[in-house]
Structures are given as C-alpha cells and as structure tokens.
Amino acid sequence: MNRPTIGFVGMTHLGIVSATAIAAKGFPVLCYDPDNKLIVSLARGSLPIEEPGLPELLAANRSNQRFSDQIGDLSACDVVYIAPDVPTDDTGKSDLTDIRLLIEAVAKVLSPDGIMVILCQVPPGFTRGLGVLPAARLYYQVETLVFGRAVERATQPERYIIGCAFPDQPLDPRLALILGAFSCPILQMRYESAELAKISINMCLVASVTVANTLAELCENIGADWSEIVPALKLDRRIGQYSYLAPGLGIAGGNLERDLATVERLAAEHATDSSVVQAYVHNSHHRRDWAARTVRTALLDSKPDATIAVWGLAYKENTHSIKNSPSLATIAQLKGITVRAHDPSVPESAVDQLKIERFGDPLEALRGADALMILTAWPQYRNIPADEIAKLLSGRIVIDPYSVVDSKGAQRSKLVHYTLGRSIAPSH
C-alpha cells in the first residue's frame, strides 16, 4: 500500500507538533491554516511556539512537509486531521462554534473517499453528532499534547486511543498504516468512550496532584519532607514509578480545569455525584495561593512596600503559555510592591497589564530585591548556584515551591528557603 498523504488543519501547538511527528515517519504531510502570515513563517522554518526539540524536528523533515493557506489543497489528502485550539471560557466550557464551522468547511473539500480524524479535544457526544461524513470515514483520536514534552509524546506515544463509529471493525487501512508506524498499542472504542477517556486521564492526573499537594502541605507543618516520601510511593506497584506526585501551585494551563468543569456539567445534567471534583477545584485554588500567603507572612506583613524578584511567568517550564498561570495569579494578589521579573519565553506584550519590570537576565532581576519567588521551574534556573543568588539579593528570602534551588546550597548561603512539601526548619 502506498503511503497516504496526510493533511493537518490548524497550525496550533497541537497541529504543528503532530504534523511534524508524522512527517518524521516519512509520510507526505500538508499543513493548512487560513493565516497566510503563519503559513509563510512556518514554510521558512520559523515557529510561533516554544517547544524543546521541535525546531530540529521541523528542520530535519522539511522535505516531507508543505504549508498552505488554501483549504482546497486538502482535497489531495487521504487522511485529514482536525487540530485547531478549542477555546474555553472562564468556567471551563468549550466554545464549539468555530470548530463546527471548520469541520463543515473541510468536509466540503475532502476527497470522496478521504477520512477525517478529530484530534482536538471535544466533549463527549460531539463527534457522533457532527453528521458531516459517513460514519465509516470519521474518527476521533485522543490527543496527548503536553507543553514542554510535546515532541517526546508525539514521536514516542504510549498508545493511541481511537473513537470509531464501529469499534469492532478494523480501522481504515490508511489510518492504520499511519498509527502503525509508531509501534504502540492502538485502543479502538466508541466515540463517546474515547472522548471521555481523555477526561478520565486528566481526572487521574488531578487526583495525583491533589494527593501530593494535600500531603505536602501537611509535611510543611509537621517537619516531614515530601521528597523523601515520593520514592516509597513510586515503588508501590499500585501507584507506580511514573505517577504524578510532585506538589505544585494547583492545576494550571487550562486543559485540566476544562475537564473538571465538563465532568461537573455532565454530572449536573445527569444527576450524578461530582463532589470529589469540587474538592479537587477547592484544593487547587488553595495551593495556587501558597506563594502569596507565604511571602505575606515572611515579608510583606512587616514590609508592605517590598521589592520582589520573580523568576518565571509561564504556567510551567518549556512553554510560553500563561493560561491560568500560578505565577501571574500570585503577582496579581501582591498589591503595592515592585516586581522585577524574568522569563525566558513569555513576551512582554503578554503581561504588560501587570506593570512589572522585565529583565533579560535572571540575575539582574535580583538586584535590590528583598525576596526571590521562583514561580516557574525553568531548567536554566536550576543551574544558578544559591551563593550567586545570595550575593545579589538584598534580602534572604527565597520562595521556591518547586525546589529549584538546591536546599543544601541555600542553607550554606544562609538563605531562608521556602519550598512545597518541606517545613522551613527541621523538627527537633
């Protein structure tokens, strides 16, 4: 069988990474987006997103990818993936208006035997309700995008979860050939099961995060150290070495919040219990505010006009996204202070409403600051020795939820080091 030609609609984070990963397997890939400037930029190898390894992957597979702003070019494709962002409002509800219109437009130009795969996340019931194509030509595939690890997960997937109209029948051989190139398990199921599978995965992640945050906070108050407990959990086969057990500033980024909101809405609609979801949300908000509470107690109650250095504005490392960023939520709570901030990726235009001072060098941001708050765990921050921080920082306080600074180095440098999951001083 000849290699099928694959189209990707929507040059979003998901679309760019997924298309390039498939191109890396030798498939011809057409990347479509109506934004001409974006298409021209991508064709030149210039990326609009931050993602480790993606520039190299794109450069290595340019011969297999072409870019177009003409929707009619998709008619030459055997398989077309739909991969734009689906926006959500402040309550986590997805706005499906634009994605429906886009799918309808693509269906009109799709070849008579072409198949469509919905890759972006949609709520249960969406795919079956489309009615734009014969059921045998429409699939839903669970996306596995994780900002900062997107290339790894796209090129080395753990498994594929595929929603089908007829899950007991073989996949279209063209789709099977694409997925088979990645040598991982393929799980076929009905549309609704696949749509809910993505939410189920995120619910389990939220449960792990909430357990870690709940017990790490207890550690902070009784002299225990959460980092000492985690290895014991990862050696338990019922939990496992890959469990998400690192405490953090709540859940962020938008995807997990959207799925929690979806479960709450579905539970209300069908009169099922979702009280555990409400508890997850409550715990997330409580832990998100840890840094603000800590710096108030440690510094601002006695010096409300303090100057604070902030390292990290993105919602997590290795991405420029600030959606539901704990860092920005923390800064917004600290009124009347001067903030000297550094982030290696977030543009100034994204945070200009906060009226903070930006610096190109994290060490420059420390000068004259009474405290340092490390609110995004960028890898380069881990390479900065504690004694360098101590030399430039006017005060001694370091609020470091993710343990970026070496704790022993902080102690030697006489820094007052606050981190999640560990009390400020050992119990005696």
CATH architecture of the largest domain: 3-Layer(aba) Sandwich
| Most strands sheet | 8 strands, mixed
- Secondary-structure element order, as H and E? EHEHHEEHEEHEHEHHHHHEHEEEHHEHE
Q: List low-pLDDT spans.
A: none
Question: Which structural class do the helices and strands define?
Answer: alpha/beta
For this structure, what is the CATH homologous superfamily of the largest domain?
NAD(P)-binding Rossmann-like Domain
The overall pLDDT average reads 91
Count structural domains. Answer: 3
The total of helices stands at: 15
What percentage of amino acids are in beta strands? Answer: 5-15%
Helix percentage: 25-40%
CATH level-1 class of the largest domain: Alpha Beta
Strands, count: 14
CATH topology of the largest domain: Rossmann fold
Calculate Rg over CA atoms. 24 Å
Distance between the termini: 71 Å
**Strands in their spatial order, largest beta sheet:** 3-2-1-4-5-6-7-8
Choose one word for the global shape.
globular
